[in-house]
Structure formats: structure tokens, C-alpha cells
Amino acid sequence: MSAVVLVVEDELKLRDLLRSYLEREGHQVLTTASGAEAIGMARSAAPDLVVLDLRLPDVPGEEVAREVRAFSDVPILMLTAKTAEEDRIRGLEAGADDYLTKPFSPRELVLRVQAVLRRGRAAAAVQAPSSFGGGELVIDEDRRQVTVRGQGVELTPTEWGLLTALARSPGRVYSRYELVNRVRGYEFEGYERTVDSHVKNLRRKIEADTRHPRIVVTVLGGGYRLGLARDG
Ligand code: CA
């Protein structure tokens, strides 16, 4: 599974290390130390994945993520310091899909990159579009399209994973643990808040009123469920 990966990292040593790990896996690697340049490259080179350091000298990583999200749903894997949980949450809220904590091993990096790329490409088997709530929500797994109240919605790979996981069995309560496992294939420290951050972003895109969500419903002490019934 070879991909074009854009690496945004201002530490030269780490940047070179990332390049060599990723190239060894057969990926084509573009690099920059600048957040401003990264936004331009994400647009012009249309990479399959962006590896983004959150602490950059010019534009902060979370701002880069937000700007890239405005025109692209490319998966973003961010790099953060171990102690910086707040950074991580802000990065996820800005639209990053996953994170890797510094320092990391080559194996960790490669596994995480593969997981993110796989999620991005998980187009699922050919299926008819599924409709929920009298057509309020339509999920076309084959085309990887979501329509809400007649409007197409752009979801990140993680948001897509969450929504389709919930839609497998409308009404059933999925715990955060179960959701993170279905979407990511592994659990990690702080995953509850991560799931909540992604749900928050997802709701902003699909709910008519985010204060009273009807599609992705919170179940106190339980997790989340799809609030709409499957049609037909
Ligand atoms: Ca840095």
C-alpha cells in the first residue's frame, strides 16, 4: 500500500528519520519545516496522508490542520509530546485523525501510518445506500458519501468510521471503548476524550441542533447510539 506522505516537522533530525522510515515502507515522502508551506503543499500535491508536528515555528500545527480541513479530508496524523494532552485534544478538535506521541519507535510509526491509510481507503464492499430516519441520513458505503437532510457532508476518515459503526445497528448503544476499537483497531491512553472530540466534530456537520443531537445520541454512562431508525 504505497502512498504519498507529506511530513511537516521542523526538527531536521526527526524529519530525516521520518522520511527514511516511510520510504523504507515504499511511500513517496514530501517534507517541509513550515506550517504555511504545508498548507500550500497539501493543496498542490494532494497527499494521501499528512504527518503533522503540532509545535511548528511559524503556523501552529492545529491551525495547519484546520486550514487543510477547509479544502481536504486527507487523513492527518499528528505528532505531539507525551505530556501535552491538551495539545492532543486541540489537534483532534482541529480535524486531525490520530496522533503519535514523541518519542516513538519506527514500528509504532509504520503501524499507525498503515492504520490511518487503511481507514482512509476502507471503502467497504459494494452495498446499496442505507437510509435512516425517513431519509434524514443516507449513507452510501460504496461511494463513501453521506447525505444529511438532502445535503452532502464531507467527513474525515475517523468521523466516517464512527458514523458507519453506529449505523450498523441503529439504536444499539456502543461504548467508547467499542467505538475506538471498531474505528482504530486498537485502544490507547485517553481514547474516551478522543472519541468525544470526534463526535463533537461529527455533530457539527450532521446535526440540525448540536445542543440537542438526534442522529448521534449520547447515552449517559454508556456511550453513543444512532438515534434514527433504518428505513424500509
Ligand atoms: Ca516541533
Structural write-up:
This protein is an alpha/beta fold and 232 residues long. The protein folds into two domains: 4-122, Rossmann fold; 130-226, Arc Repressor Mutant, subunit A, CATH 1.10.10.10. 40% of the residues lie in helices and 21% in strands. It is built from eight helices and eleven strands. The protein has helices spanning 12-24, 35-44, 61-69, 85-93, 106-121, 157-167, 176-184, 191-206; strands at 4-8, 28-32, 49-53, 76-81, 98-102, 130-132, 137-140, 145-148, 151-153, 216-219, 223-226. Helix 1 (12-24) links the parallel strand 1 (4-8) and strand 2 (28-32). Helix 2 packs parallel to helix 3, helix 6 crosses helix 8 and helix 7 (176-184) crosses helix 8. The protein is globular and about 55 Å long. The N and C termini lie far apart (38 Å). The protein binds calcium ion (CA). Residues 10-11, 53, 55-56 line the site of calcium ion.
Quick description:
This protein is α/β, with parallel strands linked by helices.
What's the arrangement of secondary structure elements?
Blueprint: E1 4-8, H1 12-24, E2 28-32, H2 35-44, E3 49-53, H3 61-69, E4 76-81, H4 85-93, E5 98-102, H5 106-121, E6 130-132, E7 137-140, E8 145-148, E9 151-153, H6 157-167, H7 176-184, H8 191-206, E10 216-219, E11 223-226
Parallel strand pairs: 1-2, 1-3, 3-4, 4-5
Antiparallel strand pairs: 6-7, 7-8, 8-9, 10-11
The structure holds calcium ion.
The site of calcium ion has 5 residues, from loops.
Query: What is the CA-CA span between the terminal residues?
Result: 38 Å
Radius of gyration: 18 Å
Shape: globular
Helix content: 40-55%
Give the CATH level 1 class of the largest domain. Alpha Beta
Q: Look up the CATH topology of the largest domain.
A: Rossmann fold
- Which CATH-level-2 architecture of the largest domain? 3-Layer(aba) Sandwich
Coarse structural class? alpha/beta
Q: Which percent band covers the strand fraction?
A: 15-25%
- What summary fits the major beta sheet? 5 strands, parallel
- Which H/E pattern describes the elements? EHEHEHEHEHEEEEHHHEE
